[in-house]
Amino acid sequence: MGFAISDTFEIVFDTLSTARKSINLRANPRIALVIGGWVAGDERTVQCEGEADEPTGAERARITEVYYSAYPDGRDRAKWPGLTYFRVKPAWIRYSDYNRNPPEIIEFETKDLTH
Predict the structure, then answer these.
(1) DSSP 8-state symbol, 6
(2) Which fold is adopted by the domain 4-112?
(3) Which residue from 4, 17, 5 is spatially nearest to 84, judged by alpha carbons?
(4) Single pTM value for the model
(5) pLDDT in tens, the chain (115 residues)
Protein backbone atom coordinates (compact mmCIF):
# COMPACT_ATOMS: atom_id res chain seq x y z
CA MET A 1 0.00 0.00 0.00
CA GLY A 2 1.42 3.36 -0.97
CA PHE A 3 1.13 6.15 1.57
CA ALA A 4 2.37 9.67 2.21
CA ILE A 5 3.10 11.40 5.50
CA SER A 6 2.32 15.03 6.26
CA ASP A 7 4.44 17.38 8.35
CA THR A 8 2.11 16.64 11.28
CA PHE A 9 2.52 12.84 10.94
CA GLU A 10 -0.83 12.24 9.24
CA ILE A 11 -0.64 9.13 7.05
CA VAL A 12 -2.57 9.44 3.78
CA PHE A 13 -3.45 6.66 1.34
CA ASP A 14 -5.87 6.07 -1.49
CA THR A 15 -8.04 3.02 -2.04
CA LEU A 16 -11.30 2.04 -3.66
CA SER A 17 -14.40 2.82 -1.63
CA THR A 18 -15.50 -0.81 -2.09
CA ALA A 19 -12.22 -2.28 -0.80
CA ARG A 20 -12.31 -4.31 2.39
CA LYS A 21 -10.11 -1.78 4.22
CA SER A 22 -12.51 1.06 3.33
CA ILE A 23 -15.53 -0.87 4.57
CA ASN A 24 -13.75 -1.91 7.78
CA LEU A 25 -12.41 1.59 8.54
CA ARG A 26 -15.86 3.12 8.10
CA ALA A 27 -17.27 0.58 10.58
CA ASN A 28 -14.37 0.98 13.02
CA PRO A 29 -11.90 3.83 12.41
CA ARG A 30 -9.31 2.51 14.88
CA ILE A 31 -6.23 1.41 12.97
CA ALA A 32 -2.80 -0.06 13.63
CA LEU A 33 -0.02 -0.05 11.03
CA VAL A 34 3.45 -1.54 10.85
CA ILE A 35 5.68 0.06 8.24
CA GLY A 36 9.03 -1.39 7.30
CA GLY A 37 10.75 -4.07 5.29
CA TRP A 38 11.81 -1.84 2.42
CA VAL A 39 15.11 -3.64 1.93
CA ALA A 40 16.00 -7.22 2.86
CA GLY A 41 17.98 -7.27 6.10
CA ASP A 42 16.93 -3.76 7.14
CA GLU A 43 15.61 -4.11 10.67
CA ARG A 44 13.83 -0.76 11.05
CA THR A 45 10.10 -0.39 11.55
CA VAL A 46 7.50 2.17 12.49
CA GLN A 47 4.45 1.02 14.42
CA CYS A 48 1.48 3.35 14.57
CA GLU A 49 -1.92 3.35 16.26
CA GLY A 50 -4.59 5.95 15.62
CA GLU A 51 -7.87 6.72 13.92
CA ALA A 52 -8.67 6.94 10.23
CA ASP A 53 -11.14 9.20 8.49
CA GLU A 54 -12.18 10.17 4.96
CA PRO A 55 -11.90 13.95 4.82
CA THR A 56 -14.09 15.96 2.48
CA GLY A 57 -13.91 19.48 1.06
CA ALA A 58 -10.86 21.57 1.86
CA GLU A 59 -9.33 18.90 4.14
CA ARG A 60 -9.58 16.32 1.37
CA ALA A 61 -7.91 18.74 -1.04
CA ARG A 62 -5.11 19.34 1.48
CA ILE A 63 -4.42 15.68 2.18
CA THR A 64 -4.57 14.70 -1.50
CA GLU A 65 -1.84 17.26 -2.17
CA VAL A 66 0.25 15.53 0.52
CA TYR A 67 -0.39 12.22 -1.25
CA TYR A 68 0.37 13.64 -4.72
CA SER A 69 3.70 15.02 -3.49
CA ALA A 70 4.78 11.43 -2.85
CA TYR A 71 2.85 9.87 -5.77
CA PRO A 72 2.43 12.32 -8.66
CA ASP A 73 0.74 9.55 -10.67
CA GLY A 74 -2.00 9.59 -8.03
CA ARG A 75 -3.60 12.44 -9.96
CA ASP A 76 -4.31 9.98 -12.79
CA ARG A 77 -5.85 7.46 -10.37
CA ALA A 78 -8.08 10.20 -8.93
CA LYS A 79 -10.25 9.71 -12.03
CA TRP A 80 -11.00 6.10 -11.10
CA PRO A 81 -14.63 5.55 -10.12
CA GLY A 82 -14.95 5.01 -6.37
CA LEU A 83 -11.42 6.11 -5.42
CA THR A 84 -11.26 7.59 -1.94
CA TYR A 85 -8.58 8.92 0.41
CA PHE A 86 -8.11 8.01 4.05
CA ARG A 87 -6.10 9.96 6.62
CA VAL A 88 -4.70 8.32 9.74
CA LYS A 89 -4.19 10.59 12.74
CA PRO A 90 -1.68 8.78 14.95
CA ALA A 91 -2.13 8.63 18.71
CA TRP A 92 1.02 6.56 19.25
CA ILE A 93 4.13 5.89 17.14
CA ARG A 94 7.12 3.67 17.87
CA TYR A 95 10.26 3.78 15.73
CA SER A 96 12.54 0.75 16.17
CA ASP A 97 16.00 0.35 14.66
CA TYR A 98 17.42 -3.11 15.29
CA ASN A 99 20.31 -2.46 12.90
CA ARG A 100 22.02 -0.80 15.89
CA ASN A 101 23.52 -2.43 18.94
CA PRO A 102 21.90 -1.73 21.30
CA PRO A 103 18.68 -1.17 19.35
CA GLU A 104 17.23 2.35 19.17
CA ILE A 105 13.57 2.57 20.13
CA ILE A 106 11.71 5.88 20.28
CA GLU A 107 8.04 6.30 21.20
CA PHE A 108 5.73 9.24 20.59
CA GLU A 109 2.26 9.74 22.05
CA THR A 110 -0.52 12.15 21.10
CA LYS A 111 0.97 14.97 23.18
CA ASP A 112 4.23 14.63 21.22
CA LEU A 113 2.54 14.82 17.81
CA THR A 114 1.17 17.96 16.16
CA HIS A 115 -2.31 17.68 14.64
Answers:
(1) -
(2) Pnp Oxidase; Chain A (2.30.110)
(3) 17
(4) 0.87
(5) 789 999 989 999 999 999 999 999 999 999 999 998 778 888 999 999 999 999 999 999 999 999 999 999 999 988 899 999 999 999 999 999 999 999 999 999 888 776 5
